[in-house]
Amino acid sequence: MDKQEYLDLSKYTRIVIKVGSAIITNNYDIDEDKINQIAQDVSYLRKQNKEVLIVSSGAVACGMKVLNIKKKPDSVPIKQALASIGQPYLMSIYEKAFAQFSTNISQVLISIEDILSRKRFLNAKNTFEALFGLKVVPIVNENDSVAIKELMFGDNDSLSSHILNLIKGNLLIILTDVDGVYDKDPKLHKDSTLIEIVTQEEAWLKNLKGKSKLGEGGIVSKVKAAFIASKGGKTAVIINGKRKNPIKNLFLDKTFPKTIFLPKSYVKSKIYWINNCMSLGKLYIDYGAFESIKNRKGLLAKGIKAIEGVFLKGNVVDIMLDNKRVAKGIVNY
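^ Glutamate 5-kinase, sequence as received from the core. Prediction below:
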C-alpha cells in the first residue's frame, strides 16, 4: 500500500487496542463509563467486519480499589498480589460492558515466556485464531502475578506490539491521556505541536519523557511500541483515550487528533518475532560460519567457537563475530 492507503483506517481488518491504567481509572477509581465506551467502540468495529483484541492494564489498580489502597506500592510481590486480586474484578467490569452488545469476551494472560519460546508463541497464536473464529473479543494482560521481575514485559505497551504480530494484526491503537505525540510535553508547554505522521525514528523522539501514575509505561513506552509495529510492517496510532468514544471517532472523523506511525515495508511474522524477541544467549562464530549465514545456509555446530547463556530449542540467540552482533537466530536443537 502507498501512504494514502495506510492512512485509510477502514482498510485494516485485525486490530489490537491497548488500554492503559490511566485510561480506565479516575482519581484512583475504576472508570466503568470509559470501559462501557470501549465496549461500544469495539462493537462498532465488529459491525464493520473487523476482528478486535484488547490488551488491557488495570489489574493492579483494581486490586488497589478492592483493598482501598490509595498509593501504588513499590514492592513487586505486593503489586503481583494486587494484580491477582484485581484481575477478576477488572474482567467482571469488561464482561458486564460487552454484555450490553451481546458480545462474549475471553481472558488470556500472557507471560514473556509465551513470546520467547517459538513453540509456545505458535500455540498462543492458535488459541487466538480459535477465539476469533468463535466471534469472541480476547482481552489480554500480562500474567503479572507469577512473572519473575527479570522476565517481565514491564509494560503492556511492549506486550501489545508482540501480540499484534502474534495474531497477524495490521493495526495497533494505543490509548493514552494526550492527543498523540508532541514535539514537547503538552502539559508543560503551551506551544507544543502535535506530530500527526511519523515515518522514521527521528532524534527528538528518543528524548521523550513521561510515565503514568498507576501504569508501568508512559509516552516513551508507547512510542517504542509504535516503532516496533511500524518497523515490522504494521501501522500504529496513538490517540487520546480520555476523549469520548475515542476509537469509534478515530474511524469516523478524519480530523480526529492522532499520531500515526506508518510502516516502511511488509515484514514476515517470523522475522518480526526474531527481531523483537529477547535473546537468551550468544553464539560466537568463526568467519566460515559467518559466510554461511550471509549465504543463508544456516549455522552448523562446527562453526561455533563459544556459547554464552542458557537457552532451549526454539529460543532466540545473538550471533556474535569478533564480539559484535551480526545476526539473530532461532535455536533448532
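The chain has two domains: 3-271, 279-330.
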